[in-house]
Amino acid sequence: MGTTQLEAAPEPKYWHLKTVLTDALDSEFAVGEILPNERDLAARFGVARATLRQALEQLELEGRLQRRRGVGTTVAPPRMGVAVASNDRDWPGGSADAWQAVDSTVDVPPSAVAAALETAPDTEVNVLRRTRVSHGQPVAAELLYVPVGPAPDLTAIDAASGAARARAVVRELQRLGLDGEDRAVELGSARADDAKELDRLPGAPVLVVTTRYFSRGTTAAVSVATYRADTCRLTFGDTAGVEIHHAPQTRAS
Amino acid sequence: MGTTQLEAAPEPKYWHLKTVLTDALDSEFAVGEILPNERDLAARFGVARATLRQALEQLELEGRLQRRRGVGTTVAPPRMGVAVASNDRDWPGGSADAWQAVDSTVDVPPSAVAAALETAPDTEVNVLRRTRVSHGQPVAAELLYVPVGPAPDLTAIDAASGAARARAVVRELQRLGLDGEDRAVELGSARADDAKELDRLPGAPVLVVTTRYFSRGTTAAVSVATYRADTCRLTFGDTAGVEIHHAPQTRAS
DNA sequence: TAGTGGTCTAGACCACGAA
DNA sequence: TCGTGGTCTAGACCACTAG
Protein backbone atom coordinates (compact mmCIF):
# COMPACT_ATOMS: atom_id res chain seq x y z
CA MET A 1 0.00 0.00 0.00
CA GLY A 2 1.79 3.08 -1.27
CA THR A 3 1.78 6.55 0.19
CA THR A 4 -0.25 7.66 -2.78
CA GLN A 5 -1.61 11.17 -2.69
CA LEU A 6 -5.32 11.53 -3.30
CA GLU A 7 -5.53 13.89 -6.25
CA ALA A 8 -8.60 15.97 -6.93
CA ALA A 9 -11.47 13.83 -8.17
CA PRO A 10 -15.13 14.38 -8.88
CA GLU A 11 -16.00 11.33 -6.80
CA PRO A 12 -16.09 11.46 -3.00
CA LYS A 13 -12.78 10.94 -1.25
CA TYR A 14 -14.05 8.06 0.81
CA TRP A 15 -15.21 6.29 -2.32
CA HIS A 16 -11.87 6.66 -4.03
CA LEU A 17 -10.19 5.65 -0.81
CA LYS A 18 -12.30 2.53 -0.69
CA THR A 19 -11.20 1.40 -4.13
CA VAL A 20 -7.58 2.11 -3.29
CA LEU A 21 -7.85 0.06 -0.12
CA THR A 22 -9.70 -2.71 -1.93
CA ASP A 23 -6.89 -3.04 -4.43
CA ALA A 24 -4.35 -3.01 -1.64
CA LEU A 25 -6.24 -5.74 0.19
CA ASP A 26 -6.32 -7.86 -2.95
CA SER A 27 -2.67 -7.49 -3.72
CA GLU A 28 -0.69 -6.76 -0.60
CA PHE A 29 -2.41 -8.26 2.39
CA ALA A 30 -3.01 -11.75 3.66
CA VAL A 31 -6.12 -12.88 5.51
CA GLY A 32 -5.83 -12.11 9.18
CA GLU A 33 -3.16 -9.50 8.75
CA ILE A 34 -3.47 -6.38 10.89
CA LEU A 35 -3.79 -3.01 9.17
CA PRO A 36 -2.18 0.16 10.52
CA ASN A 37 -4.45 1.95 12.96
CA GLU A 38 -7.00 4.48 11.77
CA ARG A 39 -5.06 7.57 12.81
CA ASP A 40 -1.97 6.44 10.92
CA LEU A 41 -3.96 5.40 7.85
CA ALA A 42 -5.81 8.70 7.77
CA ALA A 43 -2.53 10.61 8.00
CA ARG A 44 -0.96 8.46 5.32
CA PHE A 45 -3.80 9.25 2.89
CA GLY A 46 -4.06 12.85 3.97
CA VAL A 47 -7.68 12.73 5.07
CA ALA A 48 -9.53 13.18 8.34
CA ARG A 49 -10.12 10.11 10.41
CA ALA A 50 -13.87 10.36 9.87
CA THR A 51 -13.36 10.14 6.12
CA LEU A 52 -11.05 7.17 6.44
CA ARG A 53 -13.60 5.51 8.70
CA GLN A 54 -16.32 5.98 6.09
CA ALA A 55 -14.25 3.91 3.70
CA LEU A 56 -13.45 1.27 6.31
CA GLU A 57 -17.11 0.99 7.25
CA GLN A 58 -18.05 0.11 3.69
CA LEU A 59 -15.27 -2.41 3.43
CA GLU A 60 -16.43 -4.03 6.64
CA LEU A 61 -19.98 -4.08 5.28
CA GLU A 62 -18.67 -5.92 2.25
CA GLY A 63 -16.98 -8.46 4.44
CA ARG A 64 -13.43 -7.45 3.53
CA LEU A 65 -12.37 -6.12 6.92
CA GLN A 66 -13.04 -6.94 10.52
CA ARG A 67 -12.67 -4.25 13.16
CA ARG A 68 -12.57 -4.86 16.87
CA ARG A 69 -12.41 -2.15 19.49
CA GLY A 70 -9.30 -2.28 21.56
CA VAL A 71 -7.64 -4.63 19.09
CA GLY A 72 -7.42 -3.27 15.58
CA THR A 73 -8.51 -3.80 12.00
CA THR A 74 -7.75 -7.09 10.31
CA VAL A 75 -8.25 -8.51 6.84
CA ALA A 76 -11.33 -10.74 6.88
CA PRO A 77 -11.43 -14.18 5.29
CA PRO A 78 -13.89 -14.71 2.42
CA ARG A 79 -17.46 -15.02 3.60
CA MET A 80 -18.49 -18.50 4.57
CA GLY A 81 -21.38 -20.14 2.81
CA VAL A 82 -24.15 -20.96 5.26
CA ALA A 83 -26.91 -23.29 4.08
CA VAL A 84 -30.29 -21.80 4.88
CA ALA A 85 -32.42 -24.10 2.81
CA SER A 86 -31.54 -27.29 1.03
CA ASN A 87 -33.59 -29.80 -0.89
CA ASP A 88 -34.05 -32.19 1.96
CA ARG A 89 -36.51 -31.28 4.62
CA ASP A 90 -35.02 -29.14 7.30
CA TRP A 91 -37.70 -29.14 9.90
CA PRO A 92 -36.09 -27.43 12.89
CA GLY A 93 -33.72 -29.79 14.59
CA GLY A 94 -33.25 -32.07 11.61
CA SER A 95 -30.10 -34.05 10.88
CA ALA A 96 -27.07 -31.86 10.23
CA ASP A 97 -28.83 -28.95 11.79
CA ALA A 98 -26.20 -26.71 13.30
CA TRP A 99 -28.62 -25.02 15.64
CA GLN A 100 -28.02 -25.10 19.35
CA ALA A 101 -30.90 -24.59 21.77
CA VAL A 102 -30.10 -21.91 24.30
CA ASP A 103 -33.23 -21.01 26.16
CA SER A 104 -36.98 -21.18 26.15
CA THR A 105 -39.84 -19.13 27.52
CA VAL A 106 -43.54 -18.69 26.97
CA ASP A 107 -44.49 -15.23 25.89
CA VAL A 108 -46.64 -13.07 23.67
CA PRO A 109 -44.92 -12.76 20.28
CA PRO A 110 -44.50 -9.51 18.32
CA SER A 111 -47.63 -8.68 16.39
CA ALA A 112 -45.92 -9.42 13.08
CA VAL A 113 -45.15 -12.95 14.23
CA ALA A 114 -48.61 -13.42 15.69
CA ALA A 115 -50.06 -12.53 12.31
CA ALA A 116 -47.85 -15.07 10.56
CA LEU A 117 -48.79 -17.73 13.10
CA GLU A 118 -52.45 -16.87 12.65
CA THR A 119 -52.91 -16.64 16.39
CA ALA A 120 -54.83 -13.95 18.24
CA PRO A 121 -52.67 -10.90 19.00
CA ASP A 122 -52.27 -11.62 22.71
CA THR A 123 -51.89 -15.38 22.65
CA GLU A 124 -48.81 -16.77 24.37
CA VAL A 125 -46.56 -19.11 22.42
CA ASN A 126 -43.34 -20.99 23.05
CA VAL A 127 -40.35 -18.79 22.31
CA LEU A 128 -37.12 -20.69 21.77
CA ARG A 129 -33.75 -19.05 21.54
CA ARG A 130 -31.22 -20.86 19.43
CA THR A 131 -27.75 -20.16 18.15
CA ARG A 132 -26.02 -21.36 15.05
CA VAL A 133 -22.31 -21.97 14.93
CA SER A 134 -20.33 -22.54 11.76
CA HIS A 135 -16.61 -23.02 11.35
CA GLY A 136 -16.19 -22.43 15.04
CA GLN A 137 -17.84 -19.06 15.26
CA PRO A 138 -21.39 -17.89 15.89
CA VAL A 139 -23.15 -16.90 12.68
CA ALA A 140 -26.78 -16.59 13.62
CA ALA A 141 -29.19 -16.05 16.50
CA GLU A 142 -32.74 -17.25 16.17
CA LEU A 143 -36.08 -16.84 17.86
CA LEU A 144 -38.39 -19.76 17.12
CA TYR A 145 -42.06 -19.23 17.86
CA VAL A 146 -44.17 -22.35 18.34
CA PRO A 147 -47.84 -22.13 19.25
CA VAL A 148 -48.73 -24.10 22.34
CA GLY A 149 -51.89 -25.39 20.72
CA PRO A 150 -50.94 -28.24 18.38
CA ALA A 151 -48.01 -29.50 20.44
CA PRO A 152 -48.61 -31.63 23.51
CA ASP A 153 -48.73 -29.82 26.77
CA LEU A 154 -45.26 -29.16 28.01
CA THR A 155 -46.04 -27.67 31.36
CA ALA A 156 -44.69 -30.84 32.89
CA ILE A 157 -41.15 -29.80 32.07
CA ASP A 158 -41.75 -26.14 32.65
CA ALA A 159 -39.54 -26.39 35.66
CA ALA A 160 -36.63 -27.75 33.65
CA SER A 161 -33.90 -25.43 32.52
CA GLY A 162 -34.70 -23.29 29.51
CA ALA A 163 -32.34 -25.12 27.22
CA ALA A 164 -33.69 -28.56 28.08
CA ARG A 165 -37.21 -27.32 27.60
CA ALA A 166 -36.27 -25.85 24.25
CA ARG A 167 -34.95 -29.18 23.09
CA ALA A 168 -38.16 -30.83 24.19
CA VAL A 169 -40.24 -28.41 22.17
CA VAL A 170 -38.12 -29.05 19.09
CA ARG A 171 -38.55 -32.80 19.56
CA GLU A 172 -42.31 -32.39 19.69
CA LEU A 173 -42.20 -30.26 16.61
CA GLN A 174 -40.32 -32.92 14.69
CA ARG A 175 -43.15 -35.37 15.28
CA LEU A 176 -45.38 -33.32 12.99
CA GLY A 177 -45.03 -33.70 9.26
CA LEU A 178 -43.69 -30.76 7.31
CA ASP A 179 -45.84 -29.67 4.39
CA GLY A 180 -43.72 -26.79 3.23
CA GLU A 181 -41.89 -23.68 4.21
CA ASP A 182 -41.77 -20.09 3.26
CA ARG A 183 -38.82 -17.76 3.58
CA ALA A 184 -38.01 -14.10 3.40
CA VAL A 185 -34.64 -12.40 3.63
CA GLU A 186 -34.13 -8.76 4.44
CA LEU A 187 -31.53 -6.43 5.82
CA GLY A 188 -31.72 -5.40 9.44
CA SER A 189 -29.58 -4.24 12.28
CA ALA A 190 -28.79 -6.39 15.27
CA ARG A 191 -30.77 -5.79 18.43
CA ALA A 192 -28.68 -5.62 21.57
CA ASP A 193 -29.43 -9.21 22.58
CA ASP A 194 -28.72 -10.66 19.16
CA ALA A 195 -25.58 -8.59 18.86
CA LYS A 196 -24.27 -10.07 22.07
CA GLU A 197 -24.94 -13.59 20.85
CA LEU A 198 -23.20 -12.81 17.56
CA ASP A 199 -20.21 -11.16 19.20
CA ARG A 200 -20.90 -7.85 17.48
CA LEU A 201 -21.89 -4.37 18.53
CA PRO A 202 -25.58 -3.47 18.57
CA GLY A 203 -26.69 -2.12 15.24
CA ALA A 204 -24.36 -4.37 13.27
CA PRO A 205 -25.81 -5.27 9.87
CA VAL A 206 -27.58 -8.61 9.80
CA LEU A 207 -29.55 -10.64 7.32
CA VAL A 208 -32.92 -11.43 8.84
CA VAL A 209 -34.38 -14.71 7.62
CA THR A 210 -38.04 -15.19 8.47
CA THR A 211 -39.26 -18.74 7.95
CA ARG A 212 -42.76 -20.09 8.25
CA TYR A 213 -43.15 -23.84 8.66
CA PHE A 214 -46.39 -25.35 7.45
CA SER A 215 -47.93 -28.52 8.76
CA ARG A 216 -51.41 -29.92 8.26
CA GLY A 217 -52.62 -26.79 6.54
CA THR A 218 -51.59 -24.34 9.22
CA THR A 219 -48.48 -22.49 10.25
CA ALA A 220 -46.82 -24.70 12.82
CA ALA A 221 -43.89 -22.46 13.65
CA VAL A 222 -42.22 -19.21 12.72
CA SER A 223 -38.51 -18.62 12.91
CA VAL A 224 -36.78 -15.25 12.88
CA ALA A 225 -33.07 -15.83 12.40
CA THR A 226 -30.51 -13.04 12.23
CA TYR A 227 -27.28 -13.87 10.43
CA ARG A 228 -24.10 -11.82 10.60
CA ALA A 229 -24.10 -9.97 7.29
CA ASP A 230 -20.36 -9.35 7.38
CA THR A 231 -19.26 -12.98 7.59
CA CYS A 232 -22.08 -14.93 5.98
CA ARG A 233 -23.24 -15.75 2.50
CA LEU A 234 -26.62 -17.46 2.71
CA THR A 235 -27.00 -20.36 0.33
CA PHE A 236 -30.21 -21.87 -0.96
CA GLY A 237 -30.82 -24.87 -3.11
CA ASP A 238 -29.15 -27.94 -4.50
CA THR A 239 -25.41 -27.59 -4.24
CA ALA A 240 -24.85 -25.43 -1.24
CA GLY A 241 -21.16 -26.06 -1.34
CA VAL A 242 -19.15 -24.58 -4.14
CA GLU A 243 -17.12 -21.57 -3.24
CA ILE A 244 -17.75 -18.37 -5.07
CA HIS A 245 -14.66 -16.37 -4.48
CA HIS A 246 -14.35 -12.96 -2.94
CA ALA A 247 -16.05 -9.73 -3.81
CA PRO A 248 -18.63 -10.12 -6.55
CA GLN A 249 -19.48 -6.52 -5.88
CA THR A 250 -16.33 -4.60 -5.27
CA ARG A 251 -15.04 -3.26 -8.54
CA ALA A 252 -15.25 0.44 -9.26
CA SER A 253 -17.44 1.47 -12.16
CA MET B 1 -42.44 13.75 18.41
CA GLY B 2 -41.77 15.69 21.61
CA THR B 3 -38.88 17.97 22.38
CA THR B 4 -37.54 15.32 24.71
CA GLN B 5 -34.15 15.95 26.25
CA LEU B 6 -31.64 13.17 25.92
CA GLU B 7 -30.67 12.40 29.49
CA ALA B 8 -27.39 10.77 30.35
CA ALA B 9 -27.37 7.13 29.32
CA PRO B 10 -24.80 4.36 29.16
CA GLU B 11 -25.83 3.61 25.59
CA PRO B 12 -24.66 5.74 22.66
CA LYS B 13 -26.73 8.82 21.90
CA TYR B 14 -27.37 7.81 18.32
CA TRP B 15 -28.72 4.47 19.48
CA HIS B 16 -31.09 6.03 21.94
CA LEU B 17 -32.02 8.57 19.32
CA LYS B 18 -32.81 5.77 16.92
CA THR B 19 -35.27 4.13 19.28
CA VAL B 20 -36.91 7.47 20.01
CA LEU B 21 -37.31 8.15 16.32
CA THR B 22 -38.56 4.62 15.69
CA ASP B 23 -41.31 5.07 18.24
CA ALA B 24 -42.18 8.45 16.77
CA LEU B 25 -42.38 6.92 13.30
CA ASP B 26 -44.67 4.19 14.56
CA SER B 27 -47.02 6.49 16.38
CA GLU B 28 -46.94 9.94 14.87
CA PHE B 29 -46.05 9.74 11.22
CA ALA B 30 -47.77 8.48 8.12
CA VAL B 31 -46.04 6.83 5.19
CA GLY B 32 -44.69 9.41 2.80
CA GLU B 33 -44.71 12.20 5.33
CA ILE B 34 -41.72 14.55 5.29
CA LEU B 35 -39.61 14.85 8.42
CA PRO B 36 -38.05 18.12 9.57
CA ASN B 37 -34.64 18.67 8.03
CA GLU B 38 -31.51 17.30 9.66
CA ARG B 39 -30.33 20.60 11.11
CA ASP B 40 -33.65 21.23 12.81
CA LEU B 41 -33.93 17.66 14.08
CA ALA B 42 -30.41 17.77 15.48
CA ALA B 43 -31.14 21.03 17.24
CA ARG B 44 -34.41 19.70 18.59
CA PHE B 45 -32.67 16.71 20.15
CA GLY B 46 -29.67 18.70 21.25
CA VAL B 47 -27.07 16.72 19.31
CA ALA B 48 -24.65 17.43 16.50
CA ARG B 49 -25.89 16.82 13.00
CA ALA B 50 -23.39 13.99 12.53
CA THR B 51 -24.90 12.17 15.48
CA LEU B 52 -28.42 12.67 14.22
CA ARG B 53 -27.30 11.40 10.84
CA GLN B 54 -25.89 8.24 12.38
CA ALA B 55 -29.38 7.45 13.69
CA LEU B 56 -31.05 8.32 10.40
CA GLU B 57 -28.61 6.13 8.51
CA GLN B 58 -29.57 3.10 10.56
CA LEU B 59 -33.25 3.80 10.10
CA GLU B 60 -32.74 4.08 6.38
CA LEU B 61 -30.83 0.80 6.44
CA GLU B 62 -33.81 -0.78 8.15
CA GLY B 63 -36.12 0.53 5.49
CA ARG B 64 -37.97 2.96 7.74
CA LEU B 65 -36.80 6.16 6.10
CA GLN B 66 -35.97 7.35 2.65
CA ARG B 67 -33.59 10.26 2.15
CA ARG B 68 -33.09 12.14 -1.07
CA ARG B 69 -30.58 14.90 -1.56
CA GLY B 70 -32.13 18.23 -2.37
CA VAL B 71 -35.54 16.98 -1.30
CA GLY B 72 -35.70 15.74 2.26
CA THR B 73 -36.31 12.75 4.47
CA THR B 74 -39.60 10.88 4.17
CA VAL B 75 -41.21 7.99 5.97
CA ALA B 76 -40.77 4.86 3.87
CA PRO B 77 -43.55 2.39 3.15
CA PRO B 78 -43.09 -1.18 4.43
CA ARG B 79 -40.65 -3.15 2.36
CA MET B 80 -42.17 -4.87 -0.63
CA GLY B 81 -41.91 -8.62 -0.95
CA VAL B 82 -40.01 -9.57 -4.08
CA ALA B 83 -40.16 -13.18 -5.21
CA VAL B 84 -36.69 -14.48 -5.92
CA ALA B 85 -37.49 -18.15 -6.17
CA SER B 86 -40.81 -19.91 -6.33
CA ASN B 87 -41.75 -23.53 -6.79
CA ASP B 88 -42.33 -23.32 -10.49
CA ARG B 89 -39.35 -23.17 -12.74
CA ASP B 90 -38.08 -19.68 -13.21
CA TRP B 91 -35.63 -20.12 -15.98
CA PRO B 92 -34.67 -16.57 -16.93
CA GLY B 93 -37.44 -14.98 -18.92
CA GLY B 94 -40.17 -17.34 -17.79
CA SER B 95 -43.82 -16.40 -17.42
CA ALA B 96 -44.44 -13.65 -14.89
CA ASP B 97 -40.80 -12.75 -14.97
CA ALA B 98 -40.54 -9.07 -14.13
CA TRP B 99 -37.11 -8.70 -15.70
CA GLN B 100 -36.57 -6.24 -18.48
CA ALA B 101 -33.68 -6.70 -20.89
CA VAL B 102 -31.61 -3.56 -21.16
CA ASP B 103 -28.42 -4.33 -22.97
CA SER B 104 -26.09 -7.05 -24.09
CA THR B 105 -22.40 -7.40 -24.80
CA VAL B 106 -19.82 -10.12 -25.13
CA ASP B 107 -17.05 -9.88 -22.61
CA VAL B 108 -14.72 -11.69 -20.25
CA PRO B 109 -16.56 -12.25 -16.96
CA PRO B 110 -15.08 -11.61 -13.51
CA SER B 111 -12.98 -14.54 -12.38
CA ALA B 112 -15.52 -15.50 -9.73
CA VAL B 113 -18.20 -15.88 -12.40
CA ALA B 114 -15.86 -17.70 -14.75
CA ALA B 115 -15.21 -20.22 -12.00
CA ALA B 116 -18.92 -20.76 -11.44
CA LEU B 117 -19.49 -21.16 -15.17
CA GLU B 118 -16.62 -23.62 -15.35
CA THR B 119 -15.13 -21.75 -18.26
CA ALA B 120 -11.49 -20.89 -18.74
CA PRO B 121 -10.52 -17.62 -17.06
CA ASP B 122 -10.27 -15.55 -20.24
CA THR B 123 -13.20 -16.97 -22.19
CA GLU B 124 -15.72 -14.47 -23.46
CA VAL B 125 -19.39 -14.97 -22.63
CA ASN B 126 -22.64 -13.18 -23.30
CA VAL B 127 -23.25 -10.52 -20.67
CA LEU B 128 -26.85 -9.38 -20.40
CA ARG B 129 -27.96 -6.41 -18.40
CA ARG B 130 -31.47 -6.60 -17.05
CA THR B 131 -33.59 -4.55 -14.72
CA ARG B 132 -36.42 -5.60 -12.50
CA VAL B 133 -39.32 -3.30 -11.72
CA SER B 134 -41.86 -3.94 -9.01
CA HIS B 135 -44.75 -1.75 -7.94
CA GLY B 136 -43.62 0.87 -10.37
CA GLN B 137 -40.09 1.30 -9.13
CA PRO B 138 -36.76 -0.34 -9.94
CA VAL B 139 -35.80 -2.94 -7.36
CA ALA B 140 -32.94 -4.85 -8.92
CA ALA B 141 -30.21 -4.69 -11.52
CA GLU B 142 -28.80 -7.91 -12.92
CA LEU B 143 -25.88 -9.14 -14.90
CA LEU B 144 -26.62 -12.46 -16.58
CA TYR B 145 -23.66 -14.41 -17.88
CA VAL B 146 -24.35 -16.99 -20.59
CA PRO B 147 -21.55 -18.97 -22.19
CA VAL B 148 -21.52 -18.72 -25.96
CA GLY B 149 -20.79 -22.43 -26.28
CA PRO B 150 -24.05 -24.31 -25.82
CA ALA B 151 -26.31 -21.66 -27.33
CA PRO B 152 -26.59 -21.28 -31.10
CA ASP B 153 -24.36 -18.75 -32.68
CA LEU B 154 -25.84 -15.30 -32.30
CA THR B 155 -23.36 -13.32 -34.32
CA ALA B 156 -26.09 -12.89 -36.91
CA ILE B 157 -27.87 -10.42 -34.69
CA ASP B 158 -24.76 -8.91 -33.29
CA ALA B 159 -25.56 -5.78 -35.17
CA ALA B 160 -28.96 -5.45 -33.55
CA SER B 161 -29.40 -3.15 -30.61
CA GLY B 162 -28.19 -4.46 -27.28
CA ALA B 163 -31.63 -4.90 -25.84
CA ALA B 164 -32.94 -6.87 -28.80
CA ARG B 165 -29.89 -9.09 -28.71
CA ALA B 166 -30.38 -9.64 -24.98
CA ARG B 167 -33.92 -10.83 -25.57
CA ALA B 168 -32.69 -13.20 -28.24
CA VAL B 169 -30.16 -14.73 -25.88
CA VAL B 170 -32.83 -15.23 -23.25
CA ARG B 171 -35.07 -16.92 -25.82
CA GLU B 172 -32.29 -19.31 -26.74
CA LEU B 173 -31.68 -20.02 -23.11
CA GLN B 174 -35.31 -20.95 -22.57
CA ARG B 175 -35.04 -23.68 -25.16
CA LEU B 176 -32.74 -25.63 -22.86
CA GLY B 177 -34.26 -27.63 -20.04
CA LEU B 178 -33.61 -26.47 -16.51
CA ASP B 179 -32.22 -29.15 -14.20
CA GLY B 180 -31.91 -27.04 -11.10
CA GLU B 181 -30.64 -23.87 -9.60
CA ASP B 182 -28.44 -22.74 -6.84
CA ARG B 183 -28.64 -19.46 -4.98
CA ALA B 184 -26.62 -17.38 -2.58
CA VAL B 185 -27.56 -14.13 -0.90
CA GLU B 186 -25.11 -11.72 0.64
CA LEU B 187 -24.80 -8.10 1.56
CA GLY B 188 -22.95 -5.75 -0.77
CA SER B 189 -22.76 -2.14 -1.75
CA ALA B 190 -23.96 -0.87 -5.07
CA ARG B 191 -21.40 -0.22 -7.77
CA ALA B 192 -21.78 3.07 -9.57
CA ASP B 193 -23.56 1.52 -12.58
CA ASP B 194 -25.97 -0.52 -10.50
CA ALA B 195 -26.64 2.44 -8.24
CA LYS B 196 -27.67 4.51 -11.23
CA GLU B 197 -30.05 1.80 -12.39
CA LEU B 198 -31.53 1.54 -8.91
CA ASP B 199 -31.88 5.28 -8.46
CA ARG B 200 -29.56 5.28 -5.46
CA LEU B 201 -26.17 6.68 -4.62
CA PRO B 202 -23.10 4.51 -5.18
CA GLY B 203 -22.35 2.45 -2.11
CA ALA B 204 -25.99 2.02 -1.16
CA PRO B 205 -26.60 -1.29 0.59
CA VAL B 206 -27.81 -4.04 -1.68
CA LEU B 207 -28.64 -7.70 -1.41
CA VAL B 208 -26.59 -9.58 -3.96
CA VAL B 209 -28.27 -12.72 -5.23
CA THR B 210 -26.00 -15.04 -7.16
CA THR B 211 -27.84 -17.75 -9.06
CA ARG B 212 -26.43 -20.64 -11.02
CA TYR B 213 -28.70 -22.32 -13.54
CA PHE B 214 -27.98 -25.96 -14.32
CA SER B 215 -28.84 -27.71 -17.54
CA ARG B 216 -27.67 -31.03 -18.87
CA GLY B 217 -25.17 -31.47 -16.11
CA THR B 218 -23.38 -28.17 -16.58
CA THR B 219 -23.82 -24.60 -15.50
CA ALA B 220 -25.77 -22.97 -18.28
CA ALA B 221 -25.89 -19.46 -16.87
CA VAL B 222 -24.94 -17.39 -13.89
CA SER B 223 -26.89 -14.40 -12.69
CA VAL B 224 -25.66 -11.73 -10.31
CA ALA B 225 -28.61 -9.62 -9.25
CA THR B 226 -28.36 -6.69 -6.86
CA TYR B 227 -31.55 -5.78 -5.03
CA ARG B 228 -32.15 -2.55 -3.16
CA ALA B 229 -31.76 -3.56 0.45
CA ASP B 230 -33.72 -0.62 1.75
CA THR B 231 -36.94 -1.31 -0.12
CA CYS B 232 -36.92 -5.06 -0.71
CA ARG B 233 -37.70 -8.18 1.25
CA LEU B 234 -36.62 -11.18 -0.79
CA THR B 235 -39.07 -14.06 -0.66
CA PHE B 236 -38.40 -17.70 -1.37
CA GLY B 237 -40.69 -20.62 -1.53
CA ASP B 238 -44.33 -21.56 -1.67
CA THR B 239 -46.43 -18.61 -0.67
CA ALA B 240 -44.48 -15.58 -1.65
CA GLY B 241 -47.36 -13.30 -0.91
CA VAL B 242 -48.37 -12.83 2.67
CA GLU B 243 -47.36 -9.58 4.23
CA ILE B 244 -45.18 -9.66 7.28
CA HIS B 245 -45.63 -6.28 8.79
CA HIS B 246 -42.97 -3.73 9.59
CA ALA B 247 -39.85 -3.99 11.64
CA PRO B 248 -39.15 -7.50 12.80
CA GLN B 249 -35.86 -6.16 14.07
CA THR B 250 -36.39 -2.76 15.53
CA ARG B 251 -37.20 -3.09 19.20
CA ALA B 252 -34.68 -2.05 21.81
CA SER B 253 -33.30 -4.76 24.00
C1' DT C 1 -31.97 30.99 -5.71
C1' DA C 2 -33.04 28.77 -1.48
C1' DG C 3 -33.15 24.60 0.99
C1' DT C 4 -32.04 19.83 1.34
C1' DG C 5 -29.04 15.89 2.23
C1' DG C 6 -23.93 14.42 1.27
C1' DT C 7 -19.11 15.08 2.26
C1' DC C 8 -15.26 16.59 5.01
C1' DT C 9 -12.43 18.52 8.75
C1' DA C 10 -9.75 18.73 13.19
C1' DG C 11 -10.21 18.18 17.07
C1' DA C 12 -12.04 15.65 21.86
C1' DC C 13 -13.27 12.01 24.98
C1' DC C 14 -14.90 7.18 25.94
C1' DA C 15 -14.95 1.91 26.19
C1' DC C 16 -12.58 -1.98 25.60
C1' DG C 17 -8.64 -5.42 25.17
C1' DA C 18 -4.13 -6.78 25.98
C1' DA C 19 0.08 -6.50 28.21
C1' DT D 1 -1.45 1.48 31.58
C1' DC D 2 -1.54 2.15 26.75
C1' DG D 3 -3.25 1.63 22.14
C1' DT D 4 -7.21 0.52 19.60
C1' DG D 5 -11.66 1.45 17.48
C1' DG D 6 -16.30 3.90 18.84
C1' DT D 7 -18.72 8.15 19.71
C1' DC D 8 -19.41 13.06 19.45
C1' DT D 9 -18.88 17.99 18.36
C1' DA D 10 -19.27 22.45 15.69
C1' DG D 11 -18.32 24.03 12.21
C1' DA D 12 -17.59 24.29 6.57
C1' DC D 13 -18.53 23.54 1.77
C1' DC D 14 -20.58 20.79 -2.13
C1' DA D 15 -24.30 18.60 -5.17
C1' DC D 16 -28.68 18.24 -6.08
C1' DT D 17 -33.80 19.49 -6.44
C1' DA D 18 -37.45 22.43 -6.78
C1' DG D 19 -39.67 26.80 -7.21
UniProtKB/TrEMBL annotation, chains A, B:
<feature type="domain" description="HTH gntR-type">
    <location>
        <begin position="17"/>
        <end position="75"/>
    </location>
</feature>
<dbReference type="InterPro" id="IPR028978">
    <property type="entry name" value="Chorismate_lyase_/UTRA_dom_sf"/>
</dbReference>
<dbReference type="InterPro" id="IPR050679">
    <property type="entry name" value="Bact_HTH_transcr_reg"/>
</dbReference>
<dbReference type="InterPro" id="IPR036388">
    <property type="entry name" value="WH-like_DNA-bd_sf"/>
</dbReference>
<protein>
    <submittedName>
        <fullName>GntR family transcriptional regulator</fullName>
    </submittedName>
</protein>
<dbReference type="Pfam" id="PF07702">
    <property type="entry name" value="UTRA"/>
</dbReference>
<dbReference type="InterPro" id="IPR000524">
    <property type="entry name" value="Tscrpt_reg_HTH_GntR"/>
</dbReference>
<keyword id="KW-0238">DNA-binding</keyword>
<keyword id="KW-0804">Transcription</keyword>
<feature type="domain" description="UbiC transcription regulator-associated">
    <location>
        <begin position="92"/>
        <end position="233"/>
    </location>
</feature>
<dbReference type="InterPro" id="IPR011663">
    <property type="entry name" value="UTRA"/>
</dbReference>
<keyword id="KW-0805">Transcription regulation</keyword>
<dbReference type="InterPro" id="IPR036390">
    <property type="entry name" value="WH_DNA-bd_sf"/>
</dbReference>
<dbReference type="Pfam" id="PF00392">
    <property type="entry name" value="GntR"/>
</dbReference>
